């Protein structure tokens, strides 16, 4: 049997932009994506600590060391600039593999979204 487990998490990043007229996705500083082992196009769950919204979309890399966290397309209606988010990705694996798996957990500076 296979189960779905947390693969990576970027904990408490601040929304820097919301672009309703973009085709969709979330733009994430590429340094944060690498630290969390998230790849371009990967599905991500977004948890908004400010309003309780939960949604899913896919990732696109933003400029390195920019701290960018921009919700694009319809997802832009679910956030406001300054909201605090938790970004989570999941992996599917065998139960035995999952017991020994360690997710990539990233805790960036909440004021700048940059790696500490």
Describe the structure.
The mean pLDDT is 97. Strands 2-6-3-5-4-7-1-8 form an eight-stranded mixed beta sheet. The protein has one domain: Barwin-like endoglucanases. With 116 residues, the protein is mainly β. The relative contact order is 0.36. The protein starts with a strand and ends in a 10-residue tail after the last strand. It catalyses: L-aspartate + H(+) = beta-alanine + CO2. Catalyzes the pyruvoyl-dependent decarboxylation of aspartate to produce beta-alanine. Heterooctamer of four alpha and four beta subunits.
Task: Give a brief outline of the structure.
It is built from 2 helices and 8 strands; from the N terminus they run E-E-E-H-E-E-E-E-H-E. The chain has helices spanning 30-35, 95-100; strands at residues 2-14, 17-19, 25-29, 43-48, 54-62, 69-72, 84-94, 104-106.
Enumerate the spans where pLDDT stays under 50 for 5 or more consecutive residues.
none
Proper CATH architecture: Beta Barrel
Tell me about the largest β-sheet: 8 strands, mixed
Number of strands: 8
The portion of residues forming beta strands comes to over 45%
Helical residues, percent:
10-25%
Cross-sheet strand order for the largest sheet: 2-6-3-5-4-7-1-8
| CATH structural class | Mainly Beta
Domains (count): 1
At the third CATH level, what is the topology name? Answer: Barwin-like endoglucanases
Q: Report the order of strands and helices.
A: EEEHEEEEHE
In DSSP terms (H or I, runs of 4 or more residues), the helix count works out at: 2
Structural class: mainly beta
Mean pLDDT: 97
Q: What overall form do the CA principal axes indicate?
A: globular
Task: Provide the gyration radius in Å.
Answer: 14 Å
Distance between the termini: 38 Å
Pfam families: Asp_decarbox
Main location: cytoplasm
Function: Catalyzes the pyruvoyl-dependent decarboxylation of aspartate to produce beta-alanine.
Subcellular location: Cytoplasm
